[in-house]
Structure formats: C-alpha cells, structure tokens
C-alpha cells in the first residue's frame, strides 16, 4: 500500500485540476496483495484505497495546499461502507470522491468504487481537520479558507444522524472524594503520569447507528454530479 500511496501522490500532482466541490475520479487496479483468502479484494483494503482517493481529491482541488500552508491536517472521525459486488484480481476500477457537505463540526465525503459506471461499493466518511499547534479547525474557519459552498452542498438527514450516533461517548472525568489523599507530595502528584478515565458507558448501551434501507442501485446509476454554484 505504501508504494501505491507514493505513486498516486506523484500522479495527483500532474492530474487534471478540479474545483473545490468537483468529483475526483481516481483509477486503480486490484493487485495480488489486495486479495484475501477468498481471492477477492479484502474488505479492509477498500478503506485504505479510499484514503488515497480522498488525498487525490484534496490534492487536485487545491484544498491540500491551502490547509498545508495553515498547518491543518485531516483525520477520520467515523466511516461506514456498503458492499454490493466483489473486485477480482487485476480488475480495473475507479474511485469517485466528492465533498458531500457539513454538519456543525465535521465534513462528510462520499466515495464510490465503480466498474464501467456500476457501483460496486459505496462509503461515507465523516472527518475533521486539526491544527498542528493544537485545536480543531471549525467549519467557519474551513469555509473561510476554501470559500463558500454551493447551495446544493447538503448532507442527507440520515447521514447526519449516523454521524451523531456513531460518535464514541466521552469518558467522564474522575473526581477525588473531598478530603481524600493519595499519599503523594504535591510535586510527585503534578509529575505523575495521568491515565485516561475509564469509559463508564456499558457496551450494550452504546448508541447504534440507524441507517435506513437503501434501494438497490440500477445497473448503471447516474454519475456523481459536480457541485456547481447557482
């Protein structure tokens, strides 16, 4: 995967330039190292290739250069993927990537693995941007850097609900009982390594993503449409 990543990092530099809201189409081919024991592309490989597709999108639409100059970098908060058909050895395919929209905290990206225009796999990624000096890039800061979004940039309601439901609960901070002492001097207490608080939420009570059933796609679904300003 490292050599494929390096290859596409070079290809992206010379690829066709895109608008910030356009669709990036990145070509791949299934390699022997992508296969699992059933001789089709391993499920985990799809997510790694999706990473490359998003980098190609950000590189070619100029967003990567803008964020790099400001000391920002992207991270994945959550992602969901649905499989329809398998990809076989040496089979060529195209990953279509586009920025789908925003909620109040994160950016949503849609990605499709297609063969001759037919959708084999579809993924949705909820990501955030962090600052190397610390802190999170707000949506207002992001839009100020890349410009206002077109009017048709919207996130489906079910996807916003999934983003909220899929988020892991924050651990509750530990509280020391009043007057309790751990027997350490103030200097040792300040220098003692802190351990993360244990998540108090039982596994059975974690929120479950509610994704409604999706109609089976046609043989040749419509191509992803670039966002255009109205």
Would you give an account of this structure?
There is one protein chain. With 230 residues, the chain is an alpha+beta fold. It has one domain: Hotdog Thioesterase (Thiol Ester Dehydrase, Chain A), CATH 3.10.129. The protein contains six helices and five strands; from the N terminus they run αβααββββααα. A five-stranded antiparallel sheet has the order 1-3-4-5-2, with helices on both faces. A hairpin with a 4-residue loop joins β3 (92-102) and β4. It is globular. The model is unreliable at 199-211 (pLDDT under 50).
Q: CATH superfamily, please? A: Hotdog Thioesterase
Please tally the helical runs, counting DSSP H or I stretches of 4 or more residues. Answer: 6
Oligomer: single chain
Helix proportion range: 25-40%
Q: How do the SSEs run, as a string of H and E?
A: HEHHEEEEHHH
Number of β-strand runs? 5
Radius of gyration over C-alpha positions, nearest whole angstrom: 21 Å
Tell me the fraction of residues in β-strands, as a range: 15-25%
Give the overall form: globular
Major sheet: 5 strands, antiparallel
Reading off the top of the CATH hierarchy, the class is best stated as Alpha Beta
Helix vs. strand class: alpha+beta
Low-confidence residue ranges: 199-211
Tally of domains: 1
The N- and C-terminal alpha carbons lie at a distance of 40 Å
Strand order in the largest sheet: 1-3-4-5-2
């Amino acid at each position: 995967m490292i050599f494929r990543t390096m290859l596409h990092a070079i290809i992206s530099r010379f690829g066709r330039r895109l608008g910030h809201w356009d669709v990036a189409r990145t070509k791949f081919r299934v390699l022997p190292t992508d296969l699992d024991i059933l001789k089709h592309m391993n499920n985990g490989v799809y997510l790694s290739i999706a990473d490359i597709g998003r980098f190609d999108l950000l590189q070619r639409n100029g967003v990567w250069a803008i964020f790099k100059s400001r000391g920002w970098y992207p991270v994945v908060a959550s992602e969901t993927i649905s499989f329809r058909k398998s990809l076989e050895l040496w089979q060529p395919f195209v990953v279509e990537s586009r920025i789908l929209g925003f909620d109040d905290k994160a950016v949503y990206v849609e990605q499709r693995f297609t063969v001759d225009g037919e959708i084999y796999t579809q993924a949705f990624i909820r990501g955030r941007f962090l600052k190397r000096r610390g802190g999170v890039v707000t949506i207002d800061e992001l839009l100020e850097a890349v410009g206002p979004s077109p009017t048709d940039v919207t996130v489906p309601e079910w996807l916003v609900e999934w983003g909220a439901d899929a988020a892991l609960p924050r651990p509750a901070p530990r509280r020391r009982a009043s007057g309790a002492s751990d027997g350490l001097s103030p200097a040792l207490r300040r220098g003692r390594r802190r351990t993360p608080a244990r998540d108090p939420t039982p596994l059975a009570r974690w929120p479950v993503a509610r994704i409604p059933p999706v109609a089976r796609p046609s043989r040749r679904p419509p191509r992803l449409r670039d966002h255009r300003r109205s």
